[in-house]
Design brief:
alpha/beta; Rossmann fold; OB fold (Dihydrolipoamide Acetyltransferase, E2P); five-stranded mixed β-barrel
Length: 437
């Protein structure tokens, strides 16, 4: 049968979807990209915050329409949303034929076979080594751990995904070797918190060691790591980034706030002083560092003074990349029960103020790049073929901007070339191939 997959949410969820695709492919299902052609549609959902839940519901209803206008016979929903709300979803969405929670990923195929009336049962399970990469020909994600043990009071991830569990380093390196042999030029190391990698297995953080081992694998030009918590960014980790050219000078650090009172209520392990010290240290020791962060506004009890401290810090720190979220009250989290919940209009106003300030900063930062030359990776081309879609070390796929580079007809996907920046377009850049001497 023809099976189509839809993956929602984060890159960690995407890796799970890629493993599911690999499992179905191994069992000789025909994987299709167009849902109109699929007889079975599998949606891997996110259930992290309210907007993600709404996106999941909308997508389920959208895919259900293919039962009428396409070839879909069975609609299957799995992932984090099912883990949180399986019983409610079964009542609310009769369009769905099968709901499978994340702890049942390995059983998904057999549940579908049972639904189809087949007695044959698969012995295959999810395998990182057999996943089907869906992120193009240049970049692949490398998931190094599952779950989270940080227990931030606003976050449902520990309830959904369980405690932090690191993968053995030899397994990760084996997968990375395979990705290199498959021709991927960039790997992006991910986990809910990459900086806690190895503590549960080896008794101490091992991200720096893992990155050094990954640098020894031939074939990769760029190695990145995302979701680095500020309190766990050690001198050793900074030094590893400094001395290894393959590791992009790119730090993705979810800071969330700058008020000590709010950070404490969030159960974050950092405070304002240590955060400011870390940002200063990174910029001093890695001059070309690109820092990306996220901020959470409207957390219960956030006063005008708290928000002003955050706003002034954003203005002062001038982050290259910053995303902000309005606090979402999530069932089952400690923050749900906190007093002094903030009115949605106040949350929206504070979000707008932060994002307006960041837009000014981003525009200034991008304009400063005009005239500079960077090594860029060619990911693809615009539909009309006039421009190549490129990224420098300062950009991750789908999250950050791109460089629209004039196509001279000789540029190829997966190639690294020198690009001179000639203009700015919103959050993206315009560039041209630097002429060789």
């Amino acid at each position: 049968m023809k099976v189509g997959f839809v993956s929602l949410g984060c890159s960690k969820n995407l890796v799970d979807t890629e493993m599911l695709i690999g499992l179905f492919k191994k069992e000789n299902f025909d994987i299709v990209h167009n849902p109109a052609q699929a007889q079975i549609i599998v949606i891997n959902t996110c259930g992290f915050i309210e907007s993600a839940k709404q996106e999941a519901i909308d997508t389920i209803l959208e895919m259900a329409e293919f039962k009428e206008v396409g070839k879909c016979q069975y609609l299957v929903v799995t992932g984090c949303l099912v883990k949180r709300y399986k019983k409610e979803l079964e009542k609310a969405l009769p369009e769905v034929d099968l709901f499978v929670s994340i702890e049942e990923y390995d059983m998904l195929l057999n549940k579908i076979e049972t639904m189809l009336g087949n007695e044959k049962k698969s012995q295959n399970t999810l395998d990182y080594m057999e996943r089907v990469i869906t992120t193009g020909k240049t970049t692949a994600y490398l998931k190094i751990a599952e779950g989270c043990s940080n227990h931030c009071t606003y976050c449902a991830i520990p309830n959904i995904r369980g405690r932090y569990v690191s993968r053995p380093m030899e397994d990760i390196l084996k997968e990375a070797e395979q990705l290199s042999k498959m021709g991927y030029k960039e790997i992006i190391v991910i986990a809910q918190d990459t900086t806690k990698y190895g503590i549960d297995l080896y008794g101490e953080p091992k991200l720096a060691t893992l990155l050094e081992e990954l640098c020894k694998i031939e074939g990769f030009n760029w190695i990145r790591f995302l979701y680095a918590y500020p309190e766990s960014i050690t001198d050793e980790l900074i030094e590893v980034v400094q001395k290894n050219e393959k590791i992009c000078s790119y730090f993705d650090i979810p800071l969330q706030h700058f008020s000590d009172k709010v950070l404490k209520r969030m159960n974050r392990k950092s405070d304002a002083k240590s955060i400011e010290k870390l940002i200063k240290k990174l910029r001093q020791e890695i001059p070309d560092v690109m820092i990306r962060t996220t901020m959470l506004v409207g957390f219960p009890g956030e006063t005008e003074e708290d928000f002003e401290a955050l706003y002034q810090f954003v203005e002062r720190a001038k982050f290259e990349k910053l995303g902000a979220f309005a606090y979402s009250k999530e069932e089952g989290t400690p923050a749900e029960r906190l007093p002094e919940q903030i009115h949605y209009k106040t949350k929206r106003k504070r979000w707008n103020l932060i994002m307006s300030k960041q837009k000014q900063i981003s525009t200034q930062k991008l304009q400063q790049k005009v005239g500079n030359t960077y090594t860029v990776l060619i990911d693809g081309f615009t539909e009309d073929g006039k421009f190549a879609l490129a990224r420098s070390y300062m950009d991750i796929p789908d999250e950050d901007g791109v460089i629209y580079m004039k196509n001279n007809g000789e540029i190829k996907v997966g190639e690294f070339v020198k690009c001179k920046i000639i203009g700015v377009r919103e959050y993206d850049l315009l560039g041209e191939l630097e002429k060789k001497d």
